[in-house]
Design brief:
The complex is a heterodimer. Chain A is of the alpha/beta class. Chain A has helices at 50-57, 84-90, 112-124, 128-141, 158-169, 188-205, 216-222, 240-245, 250-257, and strands at residues 6-19, 22-35, 39-43, 65-74, 77-78, 95-98, 176-180, 208-213, 225-230, 233-239. Chain B has an 8-stranded mixed sheet, with helices on both faces. In chain B, strands 2-1-4-5 form a 4-stranded antiparallel sheet, with helices on one face. Classes of the chains: A alpha/beta, B alpha/beta.
Chain lengths: 269, 323
């Protein structure tokens, strides 16, 4: 397969959950692409299936979830066909993830350095000194002094922990970083600081991002293209400008209308 | 600014210092509130806006008497709440002042139905059997939930927005006059935040319930509250009518908060963009500036006060003061 401009190609992806009342289809045959270096936004309410897609892309889904149909290709690799061993090698090296609960996705009893070393030793077979040097570089990348490597997660602020999680996700220079509500737990100023930093990193390192959030306004500031999900289906995919100024689907318009925004509704108090 | 009738809630120079005594090492003092003065009239809402650690939640907890103040007074309907020493007085105060928390699930008991959550506070009013059931149904209807669908459900069977409505219903059940709402919508989807805010607004208008609305989201603050106080590092840095604070922000910290509100019209740009990397640097400069003791306030327009005005660097202050 030749190098296409699409890093990710998803076709007809269907994810089912086995429940007591039979099959529940959480993702109903979605198609989307992510170009190289692109920020693709996936927007929708809780329970629409957006996180399920994120987990499926890395094959991190666990029973009772099953991928029953479809095709996922990332940089030419047929992800659904990978053997467990190949999958272990492929994960984090090609695709990494910043989870929704990034605050708690660090191990509380290990220092920050040990968490870097875990990734670097397992995937790159790095020794202690090499891992230390690499971890220091990564910390500088996300603007945290490298002496904080010997701290435990609880000694860092929420924003710093988030940056550490981001640095660990970038440790193996993946081509795609999936970010599932990466800043939801942070307040607005810190959220803005971190997104600014992600934009800078993306321009320097050139990875693609799948950015998942329920906050359409935030996504519009950050994504190049946006797919809007409703009940397991993508109802509209368009460039960010169109989603903001000329949303076509009724649901996208409803999402915009549901948000109190500055300068709107001031008279209503 | 002092009217003749006493406001529902008034904070006078409230200061709270927490002393942390770790197992090892020296003790550490944290000034959570520094000389905070606020007033809230009946049937109105006051938003307290700030980032994590600004002391905004401490204000709410001080009002609900969760700790003793270091200095200053909190007056409720003209009476110092520290003087409520009899059990009856304290109970009456605690039922008039209710709190709604950030996590709508953690605030409900997962082992009990919604009926249980509502019947208990209603029974405190002396209601029994049929009247009690009718009151529970009415309370649910008041928060726009269907009693037939909701009464026998458990908290986990409801959505986040529905759970937050139950928490508001519980406050209604004890006939609260003041609801301290600490980030009541920040764990909800953006798309249902507005409906919960609308409900709070309706309760304010129709039942004259006052709200102390604590949030980091200045965009939702103006949606519900007539007045907004911006807090940083335990101090109020700007205070006034919400519309005035938002349209004509004076303090650099208020401007920082406003500039960070997600606005689909503003792209976050990379190193090639001009203002990009400066955001973090600016944020740190503004935070350092805003940490200093505030001193005297200056009234910008009637009712709109700004602090720190005397040390404001012309480049961050004066331009906007004369705008």
């Amino acid at each position: 397969m030749s190098v296409s401009s699409n890093l990710v190609e998803v076709r007809g992806l269907q994810v089912d959950f086995l429940t007591q009342n039979g099959l529940f289809t959480a993702v109903k045959g979605v198609d989307f692409d992510i170009k190289r270096g692109e920020v693709m936004g996936l927007a929708g309410e809780s329970g629409c299936g957006k996180s399920t897609i994120a987990f499926a892309l890395m094959r991190l889904h666990r029973p009772p979830a099953i991928i029953s149909k479809g095709d996922i290709r990332i940089d030419g690799t047929d992800v659904l066909a990978l053997s467990p061993r190949a999958l272990e090698q492929w994960r984090w090296r090609k695709v990494s993830m910043v989870f929704q609960s990034a605050m708690s996705s660090l191990n509380p009893v290990l220092t920050i350095f040990e968490q870097f070393r875990d990734v670097l030793a397992r995937h790159e077979g790095m020794g202690r000194d090499a891992a230390r040097a690499r971890a220091e570089t990564l910390m500088r990348l996300v603007s945290i002094p490298s002496n904080r490597l010997d701290d435990y997660p609880h000694q860092l602020s929420g924003g710093m922990r988030q940056r550490v999680v981001l640095a660990i996700a970038l440790a193996l220079e993946p081509q795609l970083v999936i970010m599932d509500e990466p800043t939801t737990a942070l307040d607005v100023v810190v959220q803005r600081e971190i997104l600014q930093e992600i934009v800078v990193l993306k321009e320097t390192l050139g990875f693609s991002i799948l950015f998942i959030t329920h906050d359409l306004a935030l996504m519009a500031q950050f994504a190049d293209r946006i797919a809007v999900m409703l009940k397991g289906e993508i109802v509209e995919t368009a460039a960010v400008g169109e989603i903001v100024t000329a949303p076509r689907h009724d649901y996208t318009r409803r999402l915009w209308a549901a948000m109190p925004r500055l300068g709107h509704g001031m008279e209503a108090v | 600014m002092e009217g003749n009738s006493s406001p529902l809630l008034q904070l006078e120079n409230v200061t709270k210092t927490f002393t942390l005594k770790p197992l090892f090492g020296s003790e550490k003092r944290v000034e959570a509130l520094r000389n905070v003065s606020l007033r809230l009239e009946a049937g109105r809402a006051l938003a307290i806006v700030g980032e994590s650690g600004s002391g905004k939640s401490t204000v709410g907890r001080a009002v609900t008497r969760l700790f003793q103040l270091t200095s200053g007074r909190i007056l409720f309907a003209g009476r110092d709440i520290a003087d409520l020493t009899t059990r009856a007085d304290r109970m009456r105060y605690l039922s008039m002042v209710q709190m709604v928390f950030q996590d709508p699930f953690a605030a409900l008991n997962p082992a009990h139905t919604i009926r249980h959550h509502l019947v208990r506070p209603l029974a405190l009013r002396g209601l029994k059997s049929a009247a009690l059931e009718a009151a529970a149904r009415q309370t649910l209807a008041d928060v726009e939930l269907d009693p037939d669908m909701t009464l026998d459900k458990y908290p986990h069977e409801l959505s986040g927005g529905q759970r937050q409505r139950i928490n508001l219903a519980r406050a209604l059940a004890v006939d609260a006059r003041l609801i301290v709402a600490d980030e009541p919508t920040s764990m909800l989807d953006v798309s249902i935040r507005r409906s919960v805010l609308d409900l709070m607004r309706r309760l304010k208008h129709e039942r004259a319930i006052s709200f102390l609305y604590i949030t980091h989201d200045i965009a939702t603050a103006h949606y519900i509250a007539e007045e907004t106080a911006v807090m940083f590092a335990g101090q109020i840095v700007e205070y006034g009518p919400s519309a005035s604070v938002i349209r004509n922000p004076q303090h650099p910290y208020t401007r920082l908060l406003l500039s960070a509100v997600p606005d689909p019209a503003v792209r976050i740009v990379g190193p090639s963009g001009a203002e990009s990397q400066s955001f973090s640097v600016d944020a740190e400069t503004v935070r350092d500036f805003s940490r200093r003791p505030v001193g005297q306030s200056r009234e910008v327009v009637p009712g709109h006060f700004v602090y720190h005005h005397s040390d404001m660097n012309p480049s961050i202050g004066e331009a906007a003061l004369h705008a």
